[in-house]
Automatic annotation (TrEMBL), chains A, B:
Occurrences of domain MmgE/PrpD N-terminal (ranges): 4-242
Domain (MmgE/PrpD C-terminal): residue spans on this chain: 268-432
GO molecular function: lyase activity
UniProt protein name: MmgE/PrpD family protein
Gene3D superfamilies in the record: 2-methylcitrate dehydratase PrpD
Signal peptide positions (record): none
Pfam families: MmgE_PrpD_C (PF19305), MmgE_PrpD_N (PF03972)
SUPFAM superfamilies named among the record's database cross-references: 2-methylcitrate dehydratase PrpD
Domain of life (superkingdom): Bacteria
Length: 453, 453
């Protein structure tokens, strides 16, 4: 009975049986998610969610991160999930074919706050839920996404229900019912990408996971074997390439998805299509001691299609700058770093940056330049008065092949958190999150991030 | 652009353009739905939903019918939707392949109460939403259900969003976005039948429709052409037998689904598999002046498979009695009526009823007895000392072929409403609902049904 095996894994695995490395990666994911949510707090879609929470004015059970506002657990999960995905700056995982942390951290922290869970309990809930996300991702198959579903939310809702079930102390039978109720709420379409509905999906998955767990805890029933048999949710929503749940249930924690493949953390708050190019710019700039005034040209060779999202060659605004290899390269070179401040209209308008931008260009690699089916890379070439410097970049920082170190993680967090909090509060919050496994009550974390309304 | 055409129909059709007959059928549906929800108020699944509303303790914007409890609009829609489907006693519609009214009335009345809509506005919103349910039902096709989805909620959510959009005064563009958000929340699996999740689906559709409309009203965006193009929601969830939305958009109100095929109202609170048999019993009993003491046998001939749900031949409880042709036939004969009171343990245990039950039996019609593909019927035969009486029953009362008259509708309502309210309040409520088109503010209706908490 794989549904029950998955459920037992979630509710019965003792914290002591979760490897320290898994708990550490869970902590990194919570830090990253909390940070990007603070950064996304004032995005229009997040503002709508906060307005909704104000409008329904529910019991103050859990907080909206970076707000003074408190609301009922499901609404906090909803609003924080939306904020965490509002900038599309949150982590991703290939086995889920989506973003594993935004919804789960939002749901888990809302319940965790309500039940005064310890930081260790929260991390365990996240780690177990992430494992469900990865294994269920394979159970639905990559074709699930290709059929039109946004796995981040459609599969994420099961992970959210798992995290909430763990924190609320459901037994395995109750979690099986909760998954039946999660199946009844799974939704999210790729067709909604490019609209506010994409982060809405994440908030919705978080809320639905909370609801499913609460309902099951209170006696609501559903089909408790929703992954199994004819007309199962896998039959109805899965792809032809899906792996049988019976097989996956035997692979729980062997290895943990948090270790292999792990999550990919986004290093810079701009289109992922610029990340390999930026990696090359920073590497050459530092290793070769290049100076902006010496540059004659910067070129970026892309595999066919890989620069499709880079729609702005001459950006007129900060937002457009995020989708410009030319601008981000120039800014990286001039400023030595890329952060939120890089993407203001004023920064994009700087004359010296625009002069440098004009020396940057993209080109498409020709079939002779690469092998068919080769792993993705970008060729970065910088020509100066002194010479020509080339670098082929496969791995952007934050990806499994080039993980971010602790300092880079914390720099990203601070860059994010400062958008919503003053420097001192941001540092205090980071201190709490860094030692999350020793925090006795996670509501301290949310309180540390609370701002005046 | 069919999505926009559907949306314009919902938001732009003036009340004066809705035929009086459609408004009358809308009123019947609201009365029936409100009644079955009052009857379902104390079912375990409804009690969980009410407990949830108490737990999150949101702003008192709308009431739980038959309670004193008030909560935020989406939670009222959720709880009332669950109560309305808790007994599976609510109406159905073949073009939706499900129950069209429970979710829509719950969502519409919650918003209607909040905005102080008139009864006429509420009826118009219901009528337009029902039309969306019927046309979208064809747009997804019957195979949508066969692929595993519970159309009542998966398609119902679009109707709910439509009703809420109408009452909140959204424009067509906003409703298109709301439908994108509804698509992101559509859920409900046939596999959950037989559990509390079935009514949960209905509550969830009502809540999701409210949420979609509110979010779109407040500026949330989604794909505004979610019914159209590659990877549309119809591509992803529809059956091969679906009808193109372009064609259906031209058939709005031509005719109205409320008139053709219309909704099927359930006459008695027991398994639909008993309804044709009961129709025959009542007809023969009255027309032939039969008396219980004269009866030698009552037999019911079913087409193969049509009595599959009648699992209890010798019911030991009131609940089991609902799934027994033998018991319901005996009770109908003895009591001259079937109502909630029929299904108490004490009523089932009556010695005189059990004696009569033993004279009742079912049999399966043999292939020679009917033509392949014939419309469903049940052969009812009563043998008395005086002779043999036969009737072939095609249409149960409340179905399109045998509609209930006003007195039968009201008798059902009173039987339902008395389960939650005293007789005087139930009559006053019925009076309000009967004249709903002249009620200036629908919150009066909910207030009239409010009980002390």
């Amino acid at each position: 009975m794989p549904t029950e095996q998955f459920a037992r894994f979630v509710v019965d695995t003792p914290v002591s049986a979760i490897p320290a490395e898994v708990m550490a990666r869970a902590r990194d994911a919570v830090i990253d998610t909390f940070g990007v949510a603070l950064a996304g707090r004032d995005e229009p879609v997040s503002a709508i969610a906060a307005r909704w929470a104000r409008e329904i004015s529910a019991a103050p059970q859990a907080g909206l991160w970076g707000h003074g506002l408190r609301t009922a657990v499901p609404e906090a999960a909803f609003a924080n999930g939306i904020a965490a995905h509002a900038l599309d700056f949150d982590d991703s995982m290939v086995t889920l074919h989506g973003h594993p942390s935004a919804a789960v951290v939002a749901a888990a922290l809302a319940v965790g706050e309500f039940v005064h869970a310890s930081g260790e309990q929260l991390l365990a809930a996240y780690a177990l839920a992430n494992e469900i996300a990865g294994k269920f991702g394979r159970a639905f198959g990559d074709e699930h996404y290709l059929r039109g579903w946004h796995s981040t939310s459609t599969i994420g809702v099961y992970a959210c229900a798992a995290a909430c079930a763990r924190l609320w102390g459901l037994d395995a039978a109750q979690l099986c019912h909760a998954w039946g109720l999660a199946a009844a709420q799974m939704g999210g379409l790729v067709r909604n990408f490019g609209s506010m509905a994409k982060p809405f999906h994440v908030g919705q998955a978080a809320r639905a996971g909370v609801l499913a767990a609460w309902m099951a805890k209170t006696g609501m029933t559903a089909d408790p074997r929703i992954l199994e048999g004819p007309n199962s949710v896998l039959d109805t929503y899965g792809g032809a390439d899906r792996i049988a749940p019976e097989e996956l249930a035997g692979r729980l924690g062997k290895p943990w998805d948090l270790l292999d493949p792990g999550v990919n953390v986004k290093r810079w708050p701009c289109c992922y299509g610029t990340h390999r190019g930026l990696t090359g710019i920073f590497a050459l700039r530092e290793s070769q001691g290049l100076r902006a005034e010496d540059i004659e040209s910067m070129t970026f060779g892309y595999l066919p299609g890989n620069d499709a999202a880079l729609i702005d060659r001459e950006p007129a605004s900060g937002l457009e700058g995020k989708f410009s290899m030319e601008y981000t390269a120039a800014a990286a070179f001039m400023d030595g770093e890329i952060g939120f401040d890089t993407f203001t209209d004023a920064m994009v308008a700087r004359p010296e940056v625009r002069r440098l931008m004009r020396k940057a260009s993209r080109y498409r690699l020709r079939p002779g330049d690469f092998e068919a089916g080769a792993p993705v890379f970008v060729d970065v070439t910088i020509t100066t008065r002194q010479g020509r410097h080339e670098l082929r970049v496969h791995h952007a920082p934050g990806s499994r092949g080039n993980p971010m170190d602790a300092a880079q993680h914390e720099a990203k967090f601070m860059d994010c958190a400062r958008r919503g909090l003053d420097d001192e509060r941001a540092r205090r919050l980071l201190g709490l999150l860094r030692d999350l496994d020793r925090v006795p009550d996670v509501s301290q974390v949310v309180a540390a991030a609370a701002a005046k309304e």
